[in-house]
Amino acid sequence: MADTLDLQPIPDPAAWTCPAPLRDQPRIVMGHGGGGALSAELVRHVFAPAFGGDALAQLGDAAAVSLGGLRLALSTDSFVVRPLFFPGGSIGDLAVNGTVNDLAMSGARAAYLSCGFILEEGVELETVARVADALGAAARAAGVEVATGDTKVVEAGHGDGVFVNTAGIGLIPAGVDLRPQRVVPGDVVIVSGAVGVHGVAIMSVREGLEFGVEIESDCAALGGLVDAMLAVTPDLHVLRDPTRGGLAAALNEIATASGTGTVISEREVPVPPAVANACAMLGLDPLYVANEGKLVAFVPREHADAVLQAMRSHPLGGESRIIGEAVADHPGMVVARTGLGGTRVVDMPIGEQLPRIC
């Protein structure tokens, strides 16, 4: 036996890869709609080459475009949530707030929406009316007008009651430039409140689970909160609403696009006890569970305290908290410091832990 060990160099964690058989699927799987790595590959390899264009290449929550001397934000989203009604909202609320929030993440205040309904033959008119009423009420609350729409009906068994698509348009104020490429090391990461609430609320009613207290979706329109932040300074670097794929997906998208690393403290990420207990019971990580009324912001350090104070003064940002920072190390990677003093990589999800949540 040799007296010395043959020590090999320690591999670079940034170069580690994990087998992902789903990526080799020749057919669409549920994960392709989950907002994670499979969704990104579908867009990058199928849709982006087919459509082309500089506006699409931004791949943000909304596209920033110029028209007639104006800077506009344009976004579209489809909603297939099951069930249609859940604690804290409905598919109608989601259809408005989801698109309004996508526009808000570019700094724009939504002005007009289009709305398309795909109805399954046999769905009750009362159900459609409830969805429409909720959608209209959410639009009025968000200060946006539904200006045009469309309705299609598919045969029984070829839908799931009601699907909704909304598209929105809004003006981007002068001096506002929100995109991940502006993130630099030293930027402070702020989250506007408790994470994982929406996804757990959907799962609890879908599966008939009880966690000792009713968990309500955080579904809300974030335009007013973003306005309050921009009133402090228009020099915010990037905003994202961590919907599909949760906070983990949003942070990974920003790290990849900016070429910076991100370090967060798990202890600082606000997770309500009910959500933490539900995730522990279901084997889920709250960082990967969807939200519908929260945002994550990368803010220059010199403005972070003032922006945080403005967020906490707004009804939708009372639980805002600094959770980390952008760093020069491990570009494109998100790392969490655990409560035990260690670190773990917070990777991009492959698909989605909880399908059909928006």
TrEMBL record:
**What PANTHER family does this protein map onto?**
CARBAMOYL DEHYDRATASE HYPE (PTHR30303:SF0), HYDROGENASE ISOENZYMES FORMATION PROTEIN HYPE (PTHR30303)
Family assignment? Belongs to the HypE family.
Domain PurM-like C-terminal, first and last residues per copy: 185-330
Q: Which InterPro entries does the record match to this protein? A: HypE, PurM-like_C_dom, PurM-like_C_sf, PurM-like_N, PurM-like_N_sf
CDD domains listed in its UniProt record:
HypE (cd02197)
Identify the species of origin.
Answer: Streptomyces caeni
- Please state every residue range assigned to the domain named PurM-like N-terminal: 61-172
Q: Which gene encodes it?
A: hypE
Instruction: Kindly provide the name given to this protein in its UniProt entry.
Output: Hydrogenase expression/formation protein HypE
